[in-house]
Amino acid sequence: MEPLVVLLGLGAPAAYALMRARGIGQADFLATARRTSMALTLAGVICGNIGIGTFVALFLFTAESPVLGYTVALSYAAGLLLCAALAGRIHAASRATGTYGLVDYLAAAHGLGSSLPIWAPVAVAFALRSIVQLMALGLILELSLGLAPGIALAIAGLAVGLYTAIGGYRVALETDLAQALIILAGMALAALGLFADTPPGVAGPAFFDLGPRGLPFLIAAALFLPFSAVLAVDNWQRIATATSAGTARRAYLLGAAICTPVYLLLARLGQVAANGGASGMAEALGAFRALMPPGLPVLADLVVMMAVMSSIDTFVMPLMTGLSRTRWGMGRIRLAVAGVFAVLTLVALGIGDALTGVIAAFNTLVVFLPAVLGALVLGDRAPRAAMLSMGLGVAATLALGALALDLAALAGFLLAAGLYAALRRRA
């Protein structure tokens, strides 16, 4: 039964994409149309913000340090509220510049002739997040189908790349409805299993013990993680393509109310699992499977699959909106999307630690904050400041991550902010 459920979960989005392919034009494929309803926007908020990166981060951070894990959980929730608060400004700014994605907005707002200097650092950050998603999906296929790790990862990349290349952003949104329901149903089962089997007192690290992480990382998580939701290309595009700013605002407020208990549940699961020596994605998945009803651990696999597939597509497609300004036909655009997934899969084969990937993605994301706030709040038009603060900021955080991963976010942000402030004055 388990292989059949996994194969159905893997193949269903591709089957739906094939059914919808002929009815999807370029505007819907690339998300360059403002027609996303409240239901689809809310489903996207849930799916995009309960991804496997969130799952792994909350589980493993809390297993290492409860105070860090719960801080991350509340910071994620605050990020959704921040998206709701800024929905009106983001929606209006997107309309004013005639853009839909974060990359295109920053290029237009700062007066850049080409979006490539902005696209490159953003693509690096979201490639890291997407690679973690692929690694999780590959692990599920490896365990449930008995495949070798490399083969499982290749199949994962092929499956997600196939339905995304066929259906684009519109199919990614439409499949979110069913995927969100599966994710929330699975989390409800996990909550029942966790609180039925867990004694009131949980051993493990002391609540305020930071474990292997330092105080700078805790500060960075509290300060910057809420902004990471606004800086996420999928959240930005979800707000920009909603039928109205009010639609986006209501979706994020309701999404925060739905997602916050899930974040706290995942943090609690990591705290309970600390005694088992949770240290990686396999342990996180194993603990989640143990909470499912007797004889049905495959339900956990299905939930995690939906969390992966429902978020990775909306990470990649917002990076492709620039293709709407080319003369490429749909066939060539679909090949470009498939090529992106092929590159992500190849890189994923060389990465072994999911938590390191999550931290690196967060570290690179925070360096975009000066350029985004400069355009969105201050009305800056500073092309050199935007592209150099983002490009050099990403390069610096990746280099610092190899030396002091927990300090990279704070150091990278300070570097990006300093560069932006200095160059902005000369613009």
TrEMBL record:
It is a multi-pass membrane protein. The chain crosses the membrane at residues 6-25, 37-61, 67-87, 147-165, 177-195, 215-233, 253-274, 294-312, 333-352, 358-378, 390-423. It is found in: Membrane. GO terms for cellular component: membrane. Its main location: membrane. It comes from the Bacteria. Pfam families: SSF. InterPro entries: Na/Glc_symporter_sf (IPR038377), Na/solute_symporter (IPR001734). The keyword Transmembrane applies. The keyword Transferase does not apply. PROSITE patterns: NA_SOLUT_SYMP_3 (PS50283). Keywords: Membrane, Transmembrane, Transmembrane helix. Belongs to the sodium:solute symporter (SSF) (TC 2.A.21) family. This is Sodium:solute symporter.
